[in-house]
Amino acid sequence: MSIEKKNGTGTGDGGSGTPEIQVRGLHKSFGDNEVLRGIDLEVGSGEVVCVIGPSGSGKSTLLRCVNLLEEPTKGQVFVDGIEITDPDVDIDAVRRRIGMVFQQFNLFPHLTVTDNLTLPQRRVLGRDKEAAAEVAAENLRRVGLSEKATAYPASLSGGQQQRVAIARALAMGPEVMLFDEPTSALDPELVGDVLAVMRMLADEGMTMMVVTHEMSFAREVADRVVFMDGGVIVEEGTPAQVIGNPSHDRTRHFLSRLLDPAMAEVEEDRTP
Ligand SMILES: Nc1ncnc2c1ncn2[C@@H]1O[C@H](COP(=O)(O)OP(=O)(O)OP(=O)(O)O)[C@@H](O)[C@H]1O
Ligand SMILES: [Mg+2]
To answer: What are the structural domain ranges in the chain?
Structure first.
Protein backbone atom coordinates (compact mmCIF):
# COMPACT_ATOMS: atom_id res chain seq x y z
CA MET A 1 0.00 0.00 0.00
CA SER A 2 0.84 3.19 -0.89
CA ILE A 3 0.32 5.42 1.45
CA GLU A 4 1.27 5.90 4.96
CA LYS A 5 -1.97 5.13 6.65
CA LYS A 6 -2.82 8.25 8.48
CA ASN A 7 -3.08 8.32 12.19
CA GLY A 8 -6.79 8.77 11.85
CA THR A 9 -7.13 12.03 13.64
CA GLY A 10 -8.56 13.71 10.71
CA THR A 11 -6.95 15.70 8.04
CA GLY A 12 -4.63 13.26 6.36
CA ASP A 13 -3.43 15.04 3.30
CA GLY A 14 -1.13 12.47 1.74
CA GLY A 15 1.68 14.92 2.05
CA SER A 16 0.49 17.32 -0.62
CA GLY A 17 -0.97 19.77 1.87
CA THR A 18 -4.38 20.05 0.23
CA PRO A 19 -7.12 17.66 1.27
CA GLU A 20 -8.65 15.85 -1.68
CA ILE A 21 -12.15 16.64 -0.44
CA GLN A 22 -13.08 19.49 1.84
CA VAL A 23 -16.64 20.15 2.95
CA ARG A 24 -17.29 23.37 4.82
CA GLY A 25 -20.51 24.37 6.53
CA LEU A 26 -22.58 22.29 4.17
CA HIS A 27 -26.35 22.62 4.42
CA LYS A 28 -28.96 21.02 2.22
CA SER A 29 -32.71 21.42 2.45
CA PHE A 30 -35.45 19.85 0.42
CA GLY A 31 -38.29 22.29 0.91
CA ASP A 32 -38.77 22.61 4.66
CA ASN A 33 -36.77 19.49 5.35
CA GLU A 34 -33.26 20.45 6.40
CA VAL A 35 -31.38 17.27 5.65
CA LEU A 36 -27.79 18.45 6.14
CA ARG A 37 -27.34 20.91 8.95
CA GLY A 38 -23.76 22.05 8.80
CA ILE A 39 -21.27 19.38 7.75
CA ASP A 40 -17.53 19.98 8.00
CA LEU A 41 -15.35 17.20 6.72
CA GLU A 42 -11.98 16.67 5.11
CA VAL A 43 -10.75 13.62 3.27
CA GLY A 44 -7.04 13.48 2.60
CA SER A 45 -5.47 12.13 -0.54
CA GLY A 46 -5.42 8.33 -0.31
CA GLU A 47 -7.64 8.34 2.73
CA VAL A 48 -10.65 6.04 3.14
CA VAL A 49 -13.53 7.50 5.11
CA CYS A 50 -16.54 5.36 5.92
CA VAL A 51 -19.78 7.17 6.64
CA ILE A 52 -22.25 5.36 8.85
CA GLY A 53 -25.56 6.35 10.38
CA PRO A 54 -29.26 5.59 10.49
CA SER A 55 -31.60 5.74 7.53
CA GLY A 56 -32.52 9.31 6.66
CA SER A 57 -29.53 10.83 8.44
CA GLY A 58 -28.30 12.43 5.20
CA LYS A 59 -25.46 10.10 4.15
CA SER A 60 -26.51 9.82 0.51
CA THR A 61 -27.29 13.51 0.34
CA LEU A 62 -23.79 14.29 1.60
CA LEU A 63 -22.18 12.10 -1.09
CA ARG A 64 -24.44 13.56 -3.74
CA CYS A 65 -23.45 17.08 -2.72
CA VAL A 66 -19.78 16.14 -3.01
CA ASN A 67 -20.15 15.52 -6.74
CA LEU A 68 -22.90 18.08 -7.22
CA LEU A 69 -25.64 15.61 -8.02
CA GLU A 70 -27.38 17.79 -5.43
CA GLU A 71 -26.82 21.48 -5.14
CA PRO A 72 -25.99 22.50 -1.58
CA THR A 73 -28.26 25.09 -0.01
CA LYS A 74 -25.31 26.65 1.79
CA GLY A 75 -21.64 25.94 2.32
CA GLN A 76 -18.73 24.92 0.17
CA VAL A 77 -17.21 21.80 -1.29
CA PHE A 78 -13.62 21.71 -2.52
CA VAL A 79 -12.05 18.94 -4.56
CA ASP A 80 -8.29 19.08 -4.65
CA GLY A 81 -8.44 22.68 -3.52
CA ILE A 82 -10.89 23.79 -6.23
CA GLU A 83 -14.22 25.07 -5.02
CA ILE A 84 -16.73 23.05 -6.96
CA THR A 85 -19.67 24.89 -5.42
CA ASP A 86 -18.46 28.03 -7.18
CA PRO A 87 -21.21 28.79 -9.72
CA ASP A 88 -18.59 29.36 -12.42
CA VAL A 89 -17.08 25.92 -12.10
CA ASP A 90 -17.34 23.45 -14.99
CA ILE A 91 -19.50 20.79 -13.38
CA ASP A 92 -18.71 18.18 -16.00
CA ALA A 93 -14.99 18.63 -15.44
CA VAL A 94 -15.55 18.16 -11.72
CA ARG A 95 -17.62 15.04 -12.15
CA ARG A 96 -14.93 13.48 -14.30
CA ARG A 97 -12.62 13.57 -11.33
CA ILE A 98 -15.11 11.85 -9.04
CA GLY A 99 -16.37 8.33 -9.61
CA MET A 100 -19.60 7.27 -7.98
CA VAL A 101 -20.97 3.81 -7.31
CA PHE A 102 -24.56 3.36 -6.19
CA GLN A 103 -26.50 0.58 -4.57
CA GLN A 104 -28.19 -0.01 -7.92
CA PHE A 105 -25.61 -0.68 -10.59
CA ASN A 106 -27.42 1.11 -13.44
CA LEU A 107 -25.74 -0.79 -16.24
CA PHE A 108 -27.21 -0.56 -19.71
CA PRO A 109 -28.93 -3.93 -20.24
CA HIS A 110 -28.69 -3.79 -24.03
CA LEU A 111 -24.91 -3.25 -24.03
CA THR A 112 -22.15 -5.74 -23.37
CA VAL A 113 -19.96 -5.28 -20.34
CA THR A 114 -17.20 -3.78 -22.49
CA ASP A 115 -19.62 -1.39 -24.19
CA ASN A 116 -20.94 -0.31 -20.79
CA LEU A 117 -17.36 0.69 -19.96
CA THR A 118 -16.43 2.28 -23.28
CA LEU A 119 -19.58 4.36 -23.82
CA PRO A 120 -18.99 6.94 -21.08
CA GLN A 121 -15.29 7.16 -21.91
CA ARG A 122 -16.12 7.95 -25.53
CA ARG A 123 -19.03 10.29 -24.76
CA VAL A 124 -17.51 12.20 -21.86
CA LEU A 125 -13.77 11.93 -22.41
CA GLY A 126 -13.83 11.73 -26.19
CA ARG A 127 -11.60 8.65 -26.28
CA ASP A 128 -11.53 6.73 -29.52
CA LYS A 129 -12.87 3.21 -29.68
CA GLU A 130 -9.55 1.41 -29.38
CA ALA A 131 -8.26 3.50 -26.50
CA ALA A 132 -11.55 3.15 -24.63
CA ALA A 133 -11.55 -0.62 -25.19
CA GLU A 134 -8.03 -0.86 -23.85
CA VAL A 135 -8.91 1.05 -20.70
CA ALA A 136 -12.07 -1.06 -20.34
CA ALA A 137 -10.07 -4.29 -20.56
CA GLU A 138 -7.55 -3.07 -18.02
CA ASN A 139 -10.25 -2.15 -15.52
CA LEU A 140 -12.21 -5.36 -16.04
CA ARG A 141 -9.00 -7.13 -15.20
CA ARG A 142 -8.66 -5.09 -12.01
CA VAL A 143 -12.08 -6.17 -10.80
CA GLY A 144 -11.48 -9.77 -11.85
CA LEU A 145 -13.99 -9.90 -14.69
CA SER A 146 -11.92 -10.10 -17.86
CA GLU A 147 -13.80 -13.21 -18.92
CA LYS A 148 -17.12 -11.31 -18.89
CA ALA A 149 -16.07 -8.66 -21.40
CA THR A 150 -18.57 -9.75 -24.05
CA ALA A 151 -21.34 -10.78 -21.66
CA TYR A 152 -24.56 -8.83 -21.11
CA PRO A 153 -25.38 -7.55 -17.62
CA ALA A 154 -28.40 -9.82 -17.19
CA SER A 155 -26.15 -12.86 -17.36
CA LEU A 156 -24.04 -11.66 -14.42
CA SER A 157 -24.64 -12.02 -10.71
CA GLY A 158 -25.42 -8.90 -8.72
CA GLY A 159 -21.91 -8.88 -7.32
CA GLN A 160 -20.42 -9.15 -10.79
CA GLN A 161 -22.67 -6.35 -12.03
CA GLN A 162 -21.53 -4.14 -9.19
CA ARG A 163 -17.90 -4.89 -10.00
CA VAL A 164 -18.61 -3.89 -13.61
CA ALA A 165 -20.12 -0.66 -12.29
CA ILE A 166 -16.94 -0.05 -10.28
CA ALA A 167 -14.80 -0.78 -13.35
CA ARG A 168 -16.94 1.63 -15.36
CA ALA A 169 -16.26 4.36 -12.82
CA LEU A 170 -12.54 3.54 -12.70
CA ALA A 171 -12.27 3.65 -16.49
CA MET A 172 -12.91 7.38 -16.27
CA GLY A 173 -9.71 7.79 -14.27
CA PRO A 174 -11.20 9.41 -11.16
CA GLU A 175 -9.15 10.86 -8.33
CA VAL A 176 -11.87 10.15 -5.82
CA MET A 177 -14.39 7.35 -5.55
CA LEU A 178 -17.69 7.73 -3.73
CA PHE A 179 -19.60 4.57 -2.81
CA ASP A 180 -23.19 4.72 -1.60
CA GLU A 181 -24.05 1.40 0.04
CA PRO A 182 -22.51 -0.56 -2.83
CA THR A 183 -23.29 -3.95 -1.30
CA SER A 184 -26.73 -3.33 0.18
CA ALA A 185 -28.63 -4.78 -2.77
CA LEU A 186 -26.54 -7.94 -2.91
CA ASP A 187 -27.15 -11.41 -1.59
CA PRO A 188 -24.84 -11.97 1.37
CA GLU A 189 -22.62 -14.45 -0.46
CA LEU A 190 -21.87 -11.86 -3.17
CA VAL A 191 -20.86 -9.05 -0.85
CA GLY A 192 -17.32 -10.27 -0.24
CA ASP A 193 -16.13 -10.01 -3.85
CA VAL A 194 -17.26 -6.40 -4.09
CA LEU A 195 -15.67 -5.49 -0.78
CA ALA A 196 -12.45 -7.16 -1.95
CA VAL A 197 -12.34 -4.88 -4.98
CA MET A 198 -12.90 -1.85 -2.76
CA ARG A 199 -10.18 -3.03 -0.44
CA MET A 200 -7.81 -3.32 -3.40
CA LEU A 201 -8.59 0.25 -4.42
CA ALA A 202 -7.93 1.43 -0.88
CA ASP A 203 -4.61 -0.42 -0.90
CA GLU A 204 -3.71 1.24 -4.18
CA GLY A 205 -4.18 4.61 -2.52
CA MET A 206 -7.52 5.68 -3.97
CA THR A 207 -9.26 8.44 -2.03
CA MET A 208 -12.61 7.01 -1.02
CA MET A 209 -15.80 7.98 0.78
CA VAL A 210 -17.89 4.93 1.50
CA VAL A 211 -21.40 4.90 2.93
CA THR A 212 -21.80 1.41 4.29
CA HIS A 213 -23.39 -0.79 6.89
CA GLU A 214 -20.53 -3.28 6.61
CA MET A 215 -18.89 -2.67 9.96
CA SER A 216 -16.14 -5.23 9.47
CA PHE A 217 -15.13 -3.50 6.24
CA ALA A 218 -15.17 -0.13 7.98
CA ARG A 219 -13.09 -1.51 10.81
CA GLU A 220 -10.47 -3.01 8.56
CA VAL A 221 -10.25 -0.60 5.67
CA ALA A 222 -11.31 2.84 6.86
CA ASP A 223 -8.75 5.33 8.06
CA ARG A 224 -11.61 7.23 9.59
CA VAL A 225 -15.25 6.55 10.41
CA VAL A 226 -17.83 9.31 10.45
CA PHE A 227 -21.12 8.75 12.27
CA MET A 228 -23.98 10.94 11.05
CA ASP A 229 -27.38 11.42 12.61
CA GLY A 230 -30.02 14.02 11.88
CA GLY A 231 -27.93 15.80 9.26
CA VAL A 232 -24.87 16.41 11.42
CA ILE A 233 -21.66 14.55 12.12
CA VAL A 234 -22.10 13.28 15.65
CA GLU A 235 -18.63 11.85 15.95
CA GLU A 236 -15.66 10.85 13.87
CA GLY A 237 -12.39 9.12 14.52
CA THR A 238 -10.54 5.90 13.88
CA PRO A 239 -12.64 2.76 13.47
CA ALA A 240 -11.38 1.66 16.87
CA GLN A 241 -12.71 4.85 18.40
CA VAL A 242 -16.05 5.20 16.63
CA ILE A 243 -17.02 1.54 16.20
CA GLY A 244 -15.00 0.02 19.00
CA ASN A 245 -15.50 2.61 21.69
CA PRO A 246 -18.05 5.23 20.68
CA SER A 247 -18.29 8.27 22.87
CA HIS A 248 -21.87 9.27 22.06
CA ASP A 249 -25.06 7.51 23.05
CA ARG A 250 -26.48 7.97 19.57
CA THR A 251 -23.54 6.12 18.06
CA ARG A 252 -23.79 3.33 20.61
CA HIS A 253 -27.51 3.02 20.00
CA PHE A 254 -27.02 2.86 16.22
CA LEU A 255 -24.29 0.24 16.47
CA SER A 256 -26.25 -1.94 18.85
CA ARG A 257 -29.20 -1.90 16.47
CA LEU A 258 -26.95 -2.89 13.59
CA LEU A 259 -25.53 -5.77 15.53
CA ASP A 260 -28.88 -6.93 16.81
CA PRO A 261 -31.75 -5.90 14.53
CA ALA A 262 -34.20 -7.98 16.54
CA MET A 263 -33.54 -5.77 19.54
CA ALA A 264 -34.09 -2.72 17.40
CA GLU A 265 -37.56 -3.95 16.47
CA VAL A 266 -38.40 -4.48 20.11
CA GLU A 267 -37.17 -0.98 20.85
CA GLU A 268 -39.15 0.50 17.98
CA ASP A 269 -42.29 -1.20 19.21
CA ARG A 270 -41.78 0.51 22.51
CA THR A 271 -41.28 3.91 20.97
CA PRO A 272 -44.54 5.84 21.17
N1 LIG B 1 -34.38 14.43 -3.83
C2 LIG B 1 -34.96 14.54 -2.63
N3 LIG B 1 -36.08 15.27 -2.48
C4 LIG B 1 -36.67 15.41 -1.27
N5 LIG B 1 -36.20 14.85 -0.15
C6 LIG B 1 -35.10 14.12 -0.23
C7 LIG B 1 -34.41 13.92 -1.46
N8 LIG B 1 -33.32 13.16 -1.24
C9 LIG B 1 -33.33 12.88 0.07
N10 LIG B 1 -34.38 13.45 0.68
C11 LIG B 1 -34.69 13.37 2.11
O12 LIG B 1 -33.50 13.66 2.81
C13 LIG B 1 -33.39 12.87 3.98
C14 LIG B 1 -32.07 12.19 4.01
O15 LIG B 1 -31.99 11.29 2.92
P16 LIG B 1 -30.68 10.50 2.56
O17 LIG B 1 -31.05 9.68 1.38
O18 LIG B 1 -29.54 11.42 2.42
O19 LIG B 1 -30.48 9.61 3.86
P20 LIG B 1 -29.52 8.35 4.07
O21 LIG B 1 -28.77 8.61 5.32
O22 LIG B 1 -28.75 8.09 2.85
O23 LIG B 1 -30.56 7.19 4.35
P24 LIG B 1 -30.52 5.62 3.91
O25 LIG B 1 -29.63 4.93 4.91
O26 LIG B 1 -31.93 5.17 4.02
O27 LIG B 1 -30.00 5.55 2.50
C28 LIG B 1 -34.59 11.95 3.99
O29 LIG B 1 -35.56 12.51 4.83
C30 LIG B 1 -35.05 11.98 2.56
O31 LIG B 1 -36.42 11.77 2.48
MG1 LIG C 1 -28.69 6.56 1.47
So the answer is: 108-174
25 lines ligand 1 (CB under 6 A): no
Query: From the CB of 56, is ligand 1 less than 6 Å away?
Result: yes
pLDDT tens digits, 211-252:
999 999 999 999 999 999 999 999 999 999 999 999 999 999
Atom 29 of ligand 1 has which residue's CA nearest to it?
56
Whether the pLDDT of residue 9 is over 50: the answer is no
pTM recorded for the entire structure: 0.90
Q: Which pLDDT band, with edges at 50, 70 and 90, does 8 fall under?
A: very low
Stretch 35-40: mean pLDDT: 98
Check if 30 has its Cβ closer than 6 Å to any atom of ligand 1. Answer: yes
Contacts of 220 (CB under 8 A, 6+ apart): 199, 239
Please indicate whether residue 35, judged by its CB atom, sits closer than 6 Å to ligand 1: yes
H/E run at residue 235: strand 232-237
Which string of DSSP letters, residue by residue, matches 85-99? TSTTS-HHHHHHTEE
Nearest CA among 111, 94, 203 for reference residue 165: 111
How many DSSP H helices and E strands does the chain contain?
10, 10
Atom of ligand 1 nearest to the CA of 228: 21
